[in-house]
C-alpha cells in the first residue's frame, strides 16, 4: 500500500492582503466590562491578602489558608480576562 502526502493543504492566513499585520485577538467584551473585571480582580486580591494576613496574625491552622486559593484564583482569572479582552 502506497500512501502519499502532498502540500496541497490550505494554509491559514490571518491577513490575505499582506499589507500590514492582522489582528489575531478581537475584543469580545466592552471596555466597561473589562473595567468591571479588573476592579473585581483587584478587590479579590486585596481581600485575599487581608484574610491571609489575619490568618497569620491569629496563628490559625495552615488548613484554613486553603480556601484562599479560590479567592486568588477568581481574582487572577478576572484580571487575565480583562487584560486579554476575552
Give a brief outline of the structure.
The protein is mainly alpha-helical.
Secondary-structure map:
Elements (H helix, E strand, L loop, with lengths): L30 H27 L10 H17 L2
Describe the structure.
By secondary structure, the protein is mostly helical. The protein has a domain at 31-84. It has two helices and no strands. The chain has helices spanning 31-57, 68-84. It is elongated, with a radius of gyration of 23 Å. The model has no long low-confidence stretch (mean pLDDT 82).
C-alpha Rg (nearest Å): 23 Å
Low-confidence parts, pLDDT < 50 over ≥5 residues? none
Order of helices and strands: HH
What percent of the residues sit in helical stretches (DSSP H or I)? 40-55%
- Describe the global form: elongated
Beta-strand portion reads: under 5%
Largest sheet: none
End-to-end separation in angstroms reads 48 Å
**Global mean pLDDT:** 82
Give the beta-strand count. Answer: 0
Derived from helix and strand composition plus strand pairing, the structural class reads mainly alpha
Report the total helices. 2
Features:
0% strand, 51% helix, mainly alpha, 86 residues
Amino acid at each position: 500500500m502506497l500512501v502519499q502526502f502532498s502540500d496541497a493543504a490550505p494554509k491559514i492566513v490571518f491577513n490575505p492582503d499582506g499589507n500590514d499585520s492582522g489582528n489575531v485577538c478581537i475584543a469580545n467584551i466592552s471596555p466597561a466590562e473589562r473595567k468591571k473585571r479588573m476592579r473585581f480582580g483587584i478587590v479579590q486580591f486585596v481581600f485575599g491578602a487581608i484574610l491571609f494576613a489575619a490568618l497569620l496574625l491569629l496563628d490559625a491552622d495552615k488548613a484554613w489558608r486553603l480556601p484562599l486559593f479560590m479567592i486568588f484564583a477568581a481574582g487572577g482569572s478576572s484580571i487575565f480576562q480583562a487584560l486579554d479582552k476575552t
